[in-house]
Design a protein that fits this description.
The structure is a homodimer.
Chain A (H helix, E strand, L loop, with lengths): L1 H6 L6 E5 L3 H14 L2 E5 L10 H8 L4 E3 L1 H15 L5 H4 L3 E3 L3 E3 L8 E7 L5 E7 L3 H17 L5 E11 L3 H13 L5 E8 L2 E11 L4 H15 L4 E3 L5 H12 L3 E5 L5 H7 L8 E6 L3 H8 L3 H7 L4 H15 L3 E7 L14 E7 L4 E7 L4 H21 L3
Helix pairs in contact in A: 9-14
């Protein structure tokens, strides 16, 4: 929501979450309306007893409930033709709306959105929009109805975000390097340091009047920023390393496969989450159990016994077996101990080996993460992708 | 945070997110302190220019900045011995704290937590705790310092959550069935309907005085609830179907593997995210490209050409190939079109085939999801796991 609102020049001051409690919701509305022009609300519009938002808004804005015929037809259609389930009394109630709101049809569900307007203390119109909490229903109504309606209002400011991702240095180090440049940024442009996964995202936000040259100015500063961190740059977009690697593989017309033990499919998932992954991603062998490492990746039993599953030798053998079995141009192989159990004195929880490269050449790297299982899996995946990205970029 | 606070009897009224803006933060603090006894704050404690929370709190509570020797030693140690990076002036600043706060040491990072107390209008003590935004650092300080300190304060209420997961009916249908029972719930117990992934979670929240029998009462109502939805019950816990399936496989001492095309490793990831997965999960073949389906799962090229990759015959062949290759007792095979591209008139985006079962017997099922790529992947995975769970539960 915030991203879409920013894109049409609307600044998001605050995000509040409260429970399904009448007093809490009313108080949050009072506070929000005291200093915001627009308040978007999600959730509480369903057919069950804990859904109290609709009657609450009706009362709050002094209306009374009426049945909306268009919504009634829509709800009836959904139950009869799509869900093919009996239409219950409580489902028909979904078609009731306060008589003082503008109904926003919900093409993807039964609960309609509701648009209220109210005179503020200073005479300006306040806009309050109530939306269903189901994410794809909310997104549908926001995209099709709310944003176009908000765009008809006078646009007063332009908001631009430009984000890039760096790896290889901490935020203090980067801040030190950027200190003078950052101090010289115009008042209208802010720099945010967003560290995560052992990397640092840098986000420039430009915000100025609609008739300013903030767009051009932010672009110029973003180019300067890219130059200043060029040695650390993963991708000049608000994206993760797998996007950079995917783009690179597509550009080179090469393919990739993964052999995953400890990450258990998470690296494959990162690639296949991206639309168009079939252009570079072939597949993976998730060799969680050692029998899969030997059976499908041709890792020798002897190697597993002498060096252990978490070793440079094993990930190298996994990588070679993977590239042979799948015919992919590049591969990533990982093995490690993600916790909470399975660690030893020699190889504590968080120990990881990664191999990345091609059948001709590859690199290996070990890591020692100190986090919980979920975090260790994510960090291993991200660092493994980075390793292959850097390997390919450094190829002659 | 909310879960941990509830567990020690502290109710969470509200969650607010604001930007790194002085006025916004101050206003949010004012509002929070006007009606809460405890305010926990995260973020804004880092070493970069956008981190403004620490000086702001110092000013807000009328203190002055001093260097904390213990934090200074800790920060120095981290840079010299763990990060092995030069210690910058801005890192030393991490050891500065307002002189009117209690310092909460951060074992996992450089920015310490800060505990302030302030007399409220009605004479009660208000507690304000500032914590780093890095999740594992925040969690460490909350677990080791904040919760134990809060527990020394007088506990006044008991809060109990009991959650179960259902599949196979919509929330309206369940609400209809539970209507009388729900109406008879005592004032102190609330029922929430939480639909997601085509399933419905039901959460009972009991909240009463510390000396009440709310714990026993909530347990009793939770048992009644389980009986009322026994035919729809996936798991009587706040967990997803893979937990139910994992528990079942462990109990039966059986193993599982997955053959994934469209879900691209996500089902494998669901299993391997759980600690102890090695007790039942063997591995997977992520057969994204058809060459992997033929090469590693022995699906015949002729079948792929005549029936297509997204077909009942292909997922059946994938399942058989998988069980043969991995030796797992049970398997799941999925193939589908997740979008945004790749659909046809005959097989539109969202078309999915799933096969689940053993080498002796299996079931197949088709789905037609209507969401975006990410959501289609998640729904396919969840429904595929449910299919195998129901298959095994119905085995003689």
């Amino acid at each position: 929501m915030a991203q879409q609102l920013n894109a049409i020049g609307i600044w998001v001051k605050r995000r509040i979450a409260v429970g399904d409690d009448k007093k809490e919701i009313q108080q949050a509305l009072d506070e929000a309306l005291s200093d915001a022009d627009i308040v978007l609300i999600t959730g509480g519009l369903g057919p069950t007893a804990d859904d109290i938002t609709k009657p609450l808004l009706c009362e709050y804005f002094g209306g009374k409930m009426i049945t909306d015929e268009k919504v009634l037809q829509h709800v009836t259609h959904i139950f009869q033709h799509i869900l093919k389930r009996p239409l219950l009394e409580r489902n028909l109630k979904q078609a009731e709306v306060p008589d003082n709101c503008r109904v926003l049809m919900n093409q993807k569900g039964t609960a309609p959105g509701m648009w209220f307007e109210k005179k503020g203390e200073n005479g300006t119109n306040k806009i309050i929009v109530s939306l269903p909490g189901v994410p794809h229903e909310m997104k549908g109504i926001v995209t099709e109805k709310v944003l176009p309606l908000l765009q008809t209002k006078q646009k007063t400011s332009t908001i631009i975000h430009r984000t890039l991702l760096t790896a290889g240095a901490g935020e203090s180090f980067i801040a030190e390097r950027l200190q003078n440049w950052e101090a010289d940024l115009p008042e209208t442009i802010k720099l945010a340091y967003l560290p995560n996964y052992g990397m640092v995202r840098l986000r420039l936000t430009g915000r100025d009047r609609i008739d300013s040259d903030i767009e051009r100015l932010t672009e110029k500063k973003f180019e300067e920023l890219q130059d200043l961190v060029s040695d650390l740059l993963v991708i000049a977009a608000d994206a993760m390393p797998e996007k950079a690697l995917g783009d690179l593989l597509l550009a080179k017309n090469k393919t990739i496969a993964t052999a995953e033990s400890c990450t258990g499919g998470y690296i494959a998932h990162l690639f296949t989450s991206m639309a168009g992954a079939s252009g570079f991603y072939k597949g993976s062998v998730i060799a969680y159990d050692n029998s899969i490492k030997t059976g499908l990746l041709n890792v020798s039993k002897n190697l597993l016994e002498t060096k252990g599953a978490v070793s440079e030798e094993t990930v190298t053998a996994m990588l070679n077996g993977l590239l042979e079995q799948t015919g992919a141009d590049y591969g990533i192989a990982v093995s490690g101990i993600m916790g909470p159990r399975g660690g030893s004195e020699e190889k504590p929880v968080g120990t990881v080996w990664v191999a990345a490269g091609s059948a001709q050449q590859h690199v290996t790297k070990s890591f020692h993460f100190r986090f919980d299982r979920q975090r260790n899996i994510q960090l291993t995946a991200v660092q493994a992708v980075l390793l292959l990205l850097q390997f390919i970029r450094s190829e002659p």
